Amino acid sequence: MRLNIINIAEIELQPRPPQFAPTGPAAERYEARMGMVGTRLGAQKLGYTITAVPHGKRAFPFHSHRAQEEMFYVIEGTGEVRIGAERFPIRAGDIIACPTGGPESAHQIINTGRSELKYLAVSSKSPTEICEYPDSGKIAGFGDSMRFVLRGDQQVGYWDGE
């Protein structure tokens, strides 16, 4: 591999590590294989990940970001994206922008197609991030030395309520 260049065929997609895999009822709705690209390319200010989602599944809960902006490029398959209160059909070749904000910018990609849905996710990188999860009423904070997930005044698990 040449520095800063990789072919998509060279990216091995892996299931989430067990400590990040959905548990309980969430395991029925969420599943993804992912390949980290940005670190292999030497990216510093952007994160890049290839995500493959099986039919009927989602990779992540409906969420919004306060610090990191995301963009998705659909490589193959069909599905829908939830953005705020709306849903839009998506297909190979579509580019989806997800700016920072509150519940109005919350987003989630769902594979409603008949085959695997694969997309490239690109995001800005921030040392800390706050995410909101409107469907389950949670707020999460992530950073170099912190990670918390709260609902109201109680800390909960990431997949709780999903």
Would you write up a description of this structure?
With 162 residues, the protein is mainly β. It has a single domain, classed as Jelly Rolls. It is globular and about 50 Å long. It is 5% helix and 44% strand.
Rounded radius of gyration (Å)? 15 Å
Q: Order of strands across the biggest sheet?
A: 1-2-3-10-5-8
The CATH topology is: Jelly Rolls
What share of the residues lie within helices? under 10%
Q: What's this model, at a glance?
A:
The chain contains two helices and 14 strands; from the N terminus they run βαβαββββββββββββ. The protein is mostly beta strands and 162 residues long.
Task: From the structure above, extract its key features.
162 residues, Jelly Rolls, mainly beta, 5-stranded antiparallel β-sheet, 5% helix
